[in-house]
Amino acid sequence: MIQTLILFAILIFIVARYSKNPIGMYIILIWWGALNLLNYFSLSGLFIISSDTQYVYFLFFVFFTLSFIFTENFINSRVYDNFNINVSLYSYNFLFYFALLLIVPIQIMFTVRAIYLFSFIMEPSMYRSDVFGLITGTSSLFFNSVHVAKAHAFIIGPLQFVVFFSGISYFIVRKKVGLLFLGTILIVLDAIMMFGRFGYHYLIISILLYFIFTNKNKYKEEKFRVYLFSIVLFLILIFASLKITNNRGDSNIIKILKTYIVTYHTESFTIFDIELKNPNSILHEYTYGLSTLGGIERYFIPLINIFGYRFISQADQVGGYLHQNFLIGYDEYNNPLLFNAYGSIFFTMYRDGGLIAVSVFGILLGFFFSIYSGSLKTKDPIDFAIFYGLLFLILYGIFQPTVLGPMLPALFILYILKQVLKAYTKLIH
């Protein structure tokens, strides 16, 4: 416990001393450091991680921090783009109408079907398993079609994060509300469709991040309206999350707090520790970059399989493996705690090549996070959207291997969108 406190305190001091844009790093280091420390107290009965496992986390964050500082001080000024008002305007208009006319209607259609299914066809608790195909292998929501489910996951999943990250960015940087409204709707619709809590969690965290990233409002009346709206929205999101929890069979408030506040935020540390000690775990089957880039790799697998090869994407392999129940501790009544699907981003990084891969990805993530942290000063909306997406990728990597899901492709789409619009503006001007 003392080692954890000392290391993260040193890293925070280094960032404070040598960084010009430290706020993103503060958020990541405090988030991971606090939850890492919370795991030591084992408030819900989780096994405490070993020193060997702790060194893996230490190694990553040391390289991540040093890479961030080095990039900011010696590379950033040579790499970072200047803000382009035309690219910003074209991007906002394109994403707004694209979301309004295409993505939102598709999500409304599936959401209406979801509400019908868990209201009249099956119990909400059963719907949760059905929507992930755990009962029959296919999902009733997607008309029991694997192709429809994959099309939705491959296309709509990343695009809704593109809209959400951009909506947050344009609201914080340019005070534009429209795209944020559509992005929020998409996240809520997806949460209803999947009958999950993560969507509400994204919005709750975003409310907190808004106050971190924005300057104080000039007028008291404006501050009052912002605070009042944020508090009301915050309470609505908490209520929605608790309502879903209650409908899924959990009603004891103490159990809810222990499970969804403590266990869900710290169990990935224990699962990673267990799998590191398990010589038969797929964690030790090195994939040399394919796991950490699994969110991109999965797009190429169907194309490769067309030619007769039988490859399975890392997203499916790791996701399927982590869906098994892991014994992660015992509660106060000595009942076993069995949880799944919480392997964290460290599961994929370590699977790519052990400590070397963890170090390399620490350096790479530190580099890109430093590059796009520059948007805190330049106020480039697209770059700030990428920065916000990277922040989410790392923060929510504590719950699951986020690099296997839609967030990573969303960042690539944002980057490509900016390059296309830059070329377009040069062509027409």
UniProtKB/TrEMBL annotation:
Which keywords label this protein? Membrane, Transmembrane, Transmembrane helix
Judging by the UniProt lineage, the source's domain of life is Bacteria
What parts of the sequence cross the membrane? 29-49, 56-75, 95-119, 155-173, 180-212, 224-242, 354-372, 384-417
What name appears for this protein in its UniProt entry?
Oligosaccharide repeat unit polymerase
